[in-house]
Amino acid sequence: MGQADMAIPPISDSNRLLVPMNATCSLITTCVLLSAGMPPISQCFFSSYELDLQKNRELSDPVLLIRQRAVKALCDYLHDHEHIAESINEGVISSLDKLLSDPDIPCRAYATECFVVLCQHELGRVAFLENNILSSFFKLIKLTEVDIVRLNAHKAIELLSTSPDGADQIVEHGYIPLLIDCARDEVVEIKLIVMDTLNRCLSANTSKGLDAHGVGLFTALLGHENAEVRSRASQNILRLCVDPVGKQKVLEDETIPALIGILTGDSDKAMASAAGALAFICTTTHGRYTALNAGAIPYLLKLVDHSNSRVRVNALKVITCLSETPEGRRILLDHLDVITPHEHDQNAAVAKHAKIAVSVITWKP
C-alpha cells in the first residue's frame, strides 16, 4: 500500500465512523450499528495489521478515526489464531482494556469483539484473567450499554467460563447477581448466552445463585415461549438443586409442578433437562412426595419410551426415586411392562437405569 493510500483523511461527519463489524452477531449488530450512523468507507485503512509498538499506540490515539481503524484492523488480525500469542506479547490486552471505556460505540464494540476472539483460546483466557479485564467488563453488560457491546461482552464472559479458573473468577468478581438480572431482562439472544455462563458458574458455586434468587427466576423462565430458554432454565435449576438449600428452595417456589409441565411435551433438550432436575430434587423425601402429588408418574412413564436416550435415562432416574416411596411403588408395580423392555435397551445407560428401576420397584422387605 502506497503513502497516498495511507493518508489519514480529515475527520468529518461523513467519515468519523467505521463500517459495521464483520462479527456474526445477528440482527442486533446490524440494527445498533446502523442506528449509530456508521457510513461505509470504500477501502480499509490497513490491508494488513502488522503488529508493532506504533500500531499498539494507535489504539490509544486521541484522534477518533485512528483509534477506530486501529481496533478494526486488530480485530481482523486476531481472527487468525496464529496471531493470538504475538498480540498478547505485544501488550494489546492493556490497550484494548482502555478502549472498553472509550466514549465511542464502535471502539467499544470492536474492543469487545477482540476479547471474544481472544477468549476462544487458552492463552487469551489466561491473559484476560491476568490483566483483570473482568473488572472492566462489569459495566459493559448492564442494560445501560448498547446491545452490540453487551452481546460481545457476554460472549467473551461465556467463553471465559469454559475454564474452571474463569468460572471461579466470574463468581469471585461478584457477577452472579448481575447475570441473574441479565437472564431475566435481556433479549433472548443474549439471555441464552447468559444462562450458559450461569450454568458453568453455578457448577462451581451454587450459593451465590441461591442468594440472588436464582431458583425463582429459573422457575419463571420454565414458562418462557422459547424452548432453548426453557431448557437452559431446567439445567440451571438442576445446578442449584445439587445444594441441599436449593432442594428446599424449589419446594418453596413451586418449581416441581413447572418442571412436570415441561415433561408434558416440549423439545427433547428441555424434557431431558427437566427430568434431570427432578431426579436431583427427588433424592429427598419431601421432593419425592411433592412430585407424586403433582402427578409426575404418568408423564415419566411416557418418557421411558422416548426416542431420545437422555430423556429415557433421566425419566428412569426419577421413576427410581419415586419408587422408594410405598405409594410410588404401588403405582409403578402396575406399569412394569413399560420399564422392563428397556432392561435390554440398545443404549447401555438406559439399560442400566431400567434394571435399577425394576429392582427398586420389585423390592420386598
Automatic annotation (TrEMBL):
It comes from Fasciolopsis buskii. PANTHER family: RADIAL SPOKE HEAD 14 HOMOLOG, RTDR1. Pfam families: ARM_PUB. Residues 185-339 form the U-box domain. Gene3D superfamilies: Leucine-rich Repeat Variant. Signal peptide: none annotated. The lineage of its organism: Eukaryota, Metazoa, Spiralia, Lophotrochozoa, Platyhelminthes. This is Rhabdoid tumor protein. SMART domains: ARM. It comes from the Eukaryota.
